[in-house]
Amino acid sequence: MTIDYQERIPNNVDLADNRRLQRALEAWQPNYLDWWREMGPEEFQTHDVYLRTAVSVEANGWANFGHVKMPDYRWGIFLAKPEADRRVNFGDAMGDPAWQEVPGEFRGPLRRLIVTQGDTEPASVEQQRFLGHTCPSLYDLRNLFQVNVEEGRHLWAMVYLLQAHFGRDGREEADAMLVRRSGDADRPRILGAFNEQTPDWLSFYMFTYFTDRDGKYQLASLAESGFDPLARSCRFMLTEEAHHMFVGETGIGRIVQRTAELMREHDTADVRPYGGIDLDTIQRYLNFHFSVSVDLFGSELSTNAANYYTMGLKGRYDETKLKDDHRLKDATYPVTLLRGDRLVEEEEPALQAINERLRDDYIADCDRGVQRWNKVLADRGIDYRLGLPHRAFNRRIGSFAELQVTPDGELVNTEAWARQKYEWLPTEEDQAYIASLMQPVMAPGKYAGWIAPPARGIHGQPIDFEYVRAG
Ligand code: BYC
Fold first, then answer.
1. pTM for the whole structure
2. Shortest-distance Cα residue to atom 13 of ligand 1
3. By CB atoms within 10 Å of each CB, which of 61, 149, 443, 459 scores lowest?
4. For residue 193, which atom of ligand 1 is closest to its CA?
5. Atom 9 in ligand 1: residue holding the nearest Cα
């Protein structure tokens, strides 16, 4: 499964054997590069960046590290190794051989899932394109660019599926991916969180912690798909995704560490006079990014999700490890819903509750990292604890969208919400303060004062390595 880098489009799908597809992708490639130059990281296109590039899809040693100019990054098409005799593992077709071609009757929903997934990838690059100007260190700058080029590759992964399996419709969808723009009023990206801004590095780490983690759970569900090319694409994307969440978790962890150090040194929670980010502000950013990311799982009860499952297109997290009938026709699942003026948990048909179940897995995973940040505080003798807000807090999608719910899960009226909202969500003043901290630090081994240096460098390099240098 070694990747062929002699080809114009590196791949491990024998692209050269399918001339028609190769031509279609080669026609899309220059448009992609135009989009990258226009909407990718601003100012750094000619810099040499210490990037990893996939060289094989084997679990051990799949990556190569070296300085590369981002437009020269070898974006390509890499599918995880095929599994012998793979089957459809859930839904009505359970037990049938996994599909290598799109079953005609599922064409519409499958295309929709792939387009929704694909659209998030360039969106995140667009959201992050100005961050390079204000990087806290070369180490962090390199991590930003690594995330960006891999999101670009994830777009390639979905565009390959569209072009290879959906004919003309697929080619049109592939083109449309390069036309929508994050935050654009007339041609926005599809999902809410991907039209928000990522204006500063605190937001970037929160995004890579919370929103990329939605990516992990959505990709993991698609990696269970009965449509085998989608499953294999997502499986390899997940190996890249892990680094993005590492960037988020360690980024926030390093900010929390620096704040705790300043709190100890100056014996105060108000670390702003010392150039730190106070824990209340971190909590408000956390509340915001968590709430927009839980929206990405869709409605609590969704017939779309039930259909995707029954059709065998999108499974549950770790579907094949779950011990049940994998059809769920008679099963139930506990879902939190509004009843009268109270939020209560009720048993609902498990098929309709597929989104909510995935959201539960996601929330439990989010909490693990929050507890690791709390350990950073505890280890430094700080009593403050960060926490996830209630799932109904600040929602725009699903049954809580019309409600005002506090981070503790208490329903409040519009007036109380308006009064207290800014205790819970970033204020303009918070944003202005964070913006004031965003001064670029570009000398090797130097780190901005609001974030601790990382515990170690990348791929065995020291933390004062020149991870990005002018080309
Ligand atoms: N914003 O039945 P419902 C990633 C729409 S992140 C706007 O509840 P369903 C990444 C929905 O389309 C992972 N609209 O929804 C991370 C539907 O529209 P229609 C991305 C929304 O279909 C960081 C209606 O509301 N991958 O990879 O069960 C960096 C009713 O919805 C939203 C995927 O999302 C929203 N948040 O579930 C880079 C996987 N939510 O039918 C990358 C593919 C719902 O009324 N997508 N709507 O027109 C899916 O599985 C599903 O489409 C969703 C929604 C889970 C998103």
1. 0.96
2. 215
3. 61
4. 36
5. 298
How far does the centroid of ligand 1 lie from the alpha carbon of residue 218, in Å? 9
Any residues with Cβ below 6 Å from ligand 1, and which? 113, 116-117, 120-121, 124, 151, 191-192, 211-212, 214-215, 218, 295-299, 302, 304-305, 314, 355, 397
> How far is the C-alpha of 300 from the C-alpha of 149, rounded, in Å?
33
> By the 8 A CB rule, do 297 and 353 touch?
no
How far is the C-alpha of 156 from the C-alpha of 3, rounded, in Å? 15
Single-letter residue type at 421:
K
* Helix (H/G/I), strand (E/B), else coil: 11: strand
Q: Which two tokens stand for residue 180?
A: 């929508």
Helix (H) or strand (E) holding 159: helix 138-165
Local confidence pLDDT in tens for the 471 residues of the chain:
667 777 889 999 999 999 999 999 999 999 999 999 999 999 999 999 999 988 877 776 678 899 999 999 999 999 999 999 999 999 999 999 999 999 999 999 999 999 999 999 999 999 999 999 999 999 999 999 999 999 999 999 999 999 999 999 999 999 999 999 999 999 999 998 999 999 999 999 999 999 999 999 999 999 999 999 999 999 999 998 999 999 999 999 999 999 999 999 999 999 999 999 999 999 999 999 999 999 999 999 999 999 999 999 999 999 999 999 999 999 999 999 988 888 999 999 999 999 999 999 999 999 999 999 999 999 999 999 999 999 999 999 999 998 999 999 999 999 999 999 999 999 999 999 999 999 999 999 999 999 999 999 999 999 999 999 998
Q: How many CB atoms lie within 10 A of CB 423?
A: 13
Query: Under a CB-based contact definition with an 8 Å cutoff, are residues 94 and 88 in contact?
Result: yes
Distance of alpha carbon 442 from the chain centroid: 26
Which residue has its alpha carbon closest to ligand 1 atom 16? 212
**What is the rounded distance in angstroms from the CA atom of residue 300 to the CA atom of residue 290?**
16
Distance (Å, whole) CA 83 – CA 342: 47
Q: How far is the CA of 357 from the centre of ligand 1 (A)?
A: 15
44 three-class SS? coil
Q: Is 364 exposed, middle or buried (0-12, 13-18, 19+ CB in 10 A)?
A: exposed
User: Which residue reads 């939190």 in tokens?
Assistant: 336
